[in-house]
Amino acid sequence: MGSDYSYQSKSIWQYKEFTLLLSASLLLSIGNKIYELLLPLIMYDQSGGSAIVMTSMRTAELLPNLFFGIFIGVIVDRVNKKTWAIMMILSQAIVLLGVYLMFGTGVYKPMIFYLAGFILMTLNYGFFNTQVSLIKLSVPLNMLTSANAKFSFVDTFVNIMGPVFLGIVLSFLSMTQGILVTILLYMTAFLLIKYLSISEIQKVASKKSFWSDFKEGWFAFKDNQYLRTMTIYVILVNSTMSVVSTTILFFGIENLGLSNSSLSIILSIAGVGGLVASLTINELRKRMKLGVLFGIAIFLNAVAYIGLYMTNHLLLFAVSLFVLGYATTIYIISAYTFRHEQTLTHLMGRIGGITGTLFRIGMPITMLISGWIINFWGSSFVFLGAAIMNLLVFMSYWKTSLSKLK
């Protein structure tokens, strides 16, 4: 369901539950960033420098959203969201502890770590889906763009400080010991979520069957033309974004000769671009339609990928990462704000699960293929393919009614 977009003078920071949720999200984002960078790097190191092993690890991490995303959304709408969020955080900490113990004792079996990555991302998505619902419950409807901008600010702040912090961690600790830092952050976030109190999350679970709830969410999605159209474009853009994010790691190490710690610090430049986007998105939203912002972000993604394709020294690499961070943040905020504004509160978990699954449906396939492409043709070919795809998507998108959406 659409909604009129308006602004109010009350500060979003006056909403205590929003502040708690955002603080927990900050800690979890830092923890996620550390292990998302560490696990592929550890696998790359353990495998003797195999791009296929690295991308296979990322593929395993992407599959949960494809298999379980829709069903997790139904569950989230039926359960106590605070309890669910706590379970997701604690379970991730336990899995990471197991990963740490295996690496620490010299156990290296790729399939075990693929499975661990799969489970971690299943739990991570379980929390993220709950967070999407809790954001809408924590602030008024007309503050959702501001709320999403704050959460995006957290993500981009982590893109700046996370890699830098990882570089510092790797300067003093081994890669496996860095996993312990993530566990500590998760446990601190757990304590913050325990203090979260939103009346709506205490409601009695739906008396309808699981499949009735699922069908209700599916028909709500199917009947919303704008939401369906936006989802198609997100599927295409996300497929390129996931491939590029992993290829950048391989490119920095193999083509530019960067160390793990140096690469972590360089990657923070993308976070600077995202930070700028987070600080300017509210003003941009006042001046531009939401559909226009979404389209501009797709075009800027293509520009960034072209820059990465042409990169042969650190300066162009850094500029391309900045543009990529800026474009990605505008794109994510626009997509999530659109989904919030088009969805009724009691359907948020289901719509979040359905769209979240569809958003990522192409990512595991393109990720798996990219490893072989890198092996045979090199990283630059991936960047070029992603640029062409985004340009084609942009030209198609600009002709749709979605690009005119307020």
UniProtKB/TrEMBL annotation:
The keyword RNA-binding does not apply. Pfam families: MFS_1. PROSITE patterns: MFS. It is found in: Cell membrane. Keywords: Cell membrane, Membrane, Transmembrane, Transmembrane helix, Transport. This is MFS transporter. It comes from the Bacteria. The chain crosses the membrane at residues 20-42, 62-79, 86-105, 111-130, 151-173, 179-198, 232-251, 263-281, 290-308, 314-336, 357-374, 380-398. PANTHER family: MACROLIDE-EFFLUX PROTEIN (PTHR43266), MAJOR FACILITATOR SUPERFAMILY (MFS) PROFILE DOMAIN-CONTAINING PROTEIN (PTHR43266:SF2). InterPro entries: MFS, MFS_dom, MFS_trans_sf. It is a multi-pass membrane protein. Residues 226-406 form the Major facilitator superfamily (MFS) profile domain.
